Amino acid sequence: MKKIILLFSIAAFSLASSSAKAQSFSEGDNVLNLTVGFGSGVYSGAGYTVSPALAVSMEHCFWDNLINGDFSIGIGGYLGFQTSKTKAVWAGREYGYRYTSIVPAARGTFHWTGVDKLDTYAGVSIGGNIATSNAYGDWPFGTVGPASNVGGAYVAPFVGARWYFTDSFCATAEMGSGIAYFNIGVGFKF
Questions:
Q1: Distance CA 41, CA 29 (A)
Q2: Dist. CA 173–CA 120, nearest whole Å
Q3: Domains assigned to the chain
Q4: The whole model's pTM is what?
């Protein structure tokens, strides 16, 4: 996973080799991202049905024109949600577990904005993973144990890129962030 993130970072920075000085993420800007994520490592395997991860993140640019005017720093928040379930059938009875994962986190990002319309960035999310599991269905051998609640601290490095179609609308892609390993979506700058 770390190699994929590193390769994505190198590719994103290599694509942005122009010397244009347009700022895609300037001091005072806010960006709201809405993403769908794929490739979750949470509750996956044979017999699991996993929904795509849904997430919303918000970021505010606090400092820009850093290091030759091409870099900026943003701070914001993240909220992700994903469900999955197992399904088993025995003697005509369907049963299993439903899992839910909610990730609230704070994010810090370091942006390279040296190419017009392109904003590449790397950062880290720090927060918590609130994960629950609940039994459902008609269990063949009687009742099952109580639902378990797991989760804990959450720290995730990530890289991403935004391509602006207009001054306020962009496509966004991130690797290594949130509940899923790869997230794509749209962003709105205001």
A1: 33
A2: 10
A3: 2-189 (2.40.160.20)
A4: 0.74
